[in-house]
Amino acid sequence: MLDSKDRQVSSNRTLKKLIHDSAVRSKVIQVLVVVVTFSIGYYLFSNISQNLRQMELPFGFGFITSTAGFDVSWSLIPYDPSMSYGRVYLVGIVNTLVLSAFIILFSTLLGFVVGIMRLSRNLLVAQFAKWYVEFFRNVPLLIQIVFWFIVVFSTLPAPRQSFGIFDALFLNNRGFYFPSPVFQPGFVWTAIVGALALICFIFLKRSSNRFRKSTGKNMRYYYQLLLALLAVVTVVFIGTGKPLDWTLPSLQGFNFEGGGFIPTAFAAAFVAMTIYRSASIGETVRAGIQSIDTGQLEAATAIGFPPFKTLRFIVIPQAARAILPPLINLWLTIVKESSLAVAIGFPELVSVFMQTSLNQTGRAIEIVLMVMGFYMCASLTISFLLNQYNKRIQMQEG
Hints:
The protein has helices spanning 4-20, 22-54, 85-118, 123-138, 141-152, 187-215, 222-239, 264-290, 294-302, 307-337, 349-361, 364-393, and strands spanning 163-165, 169-172, 175-178, 180-183, 244-247, 250-252, 255-257, 260-263. The protein has a four-stranded antiparallel beta sheet. Strands 4-5 form a two-stranded antiparallel sheet. The protein has a two-stranded antiparallel sheet with strand order 6-7. α3 packs across α8 (264-290). The longest helix is centred in the N-terminal third of the chain and has 34 residues, at 85-118. The protein is α+β, with helices and mostly antiparallel strands. Among the domains are: 15-49; 85-179 and 248-393, MetI-like fold, CATH 1.10.3720.
């Protein structure tokens, strides 16, 4: 049996092992972090629950099924005041996602153009792109949103004096009006065939790319097959009686009726955020292109590659590996920055749910948690999908 001195020595050795063994130390630290995190969470939850009980305020999400009783100025999905707060939450989510999607698409396209212009050998083009980036990137986004809404779109003429194109498109200080499609019941067959044709097109495109990489030639009958897919969709559309009509906007009294409508708040937020983010994306694209070895550009020029094909087939595919990681962060930021549209009254999630719904129900904690949950889920989803794509395009070793 070990005496007290031997037990003390053994205990000291065990303690030293815990301190100096990195694997053990790492596990101990992780356990402590988890315990502390859950302890803080439990304390906050208990504190909030106690305060709510003292103020006699219930905690729960039952209000979601209650009637909202207020109107929303613009919604892409059917909504009326007799619907529930859950419907209001869905309206805010859809409006936020649509605004974010348009900003992501057009700011990325414009950012690529700006980034390429920054590297132009034409001094005027390069300087224009440089000052575009420096100006819009350094002016706060909220100021730009308010500027476009108050100074530009709010000063457009009234509906009776709208700017019109072909008696189908109208722009005024209330928004932009355009023809809207009306789908008849038979259109579902055209949609199904169109979806199948799209799948076939994707498969055909991938097969064509593999064939070109292996042989250096284009796949035979590639364009004929594309025309055949288009012809099949057209035949189905005509065969089902052309189940698609259009409704045109027309001036009725002091406003337009019919057709589609985009409010000035959406337009101002879209333009301001697109320009603002395109400046940052342009710098990301410029840095990504400059990371490519100039020897490859010189080799492409030497073998007679035109500038556009050099950019498309040589520069951009390699630069994408450097561009995509920071671009993911910019896209996530765009989704969260869409909440700034609340400043000009656009009915996105923060406006219709964290303001109007919160003021009516008083359920501040529940509503804030729901809004935070949406932004977190949207960000994690975008990040996961783009990171998967990023792994596919990264250069593989071995």
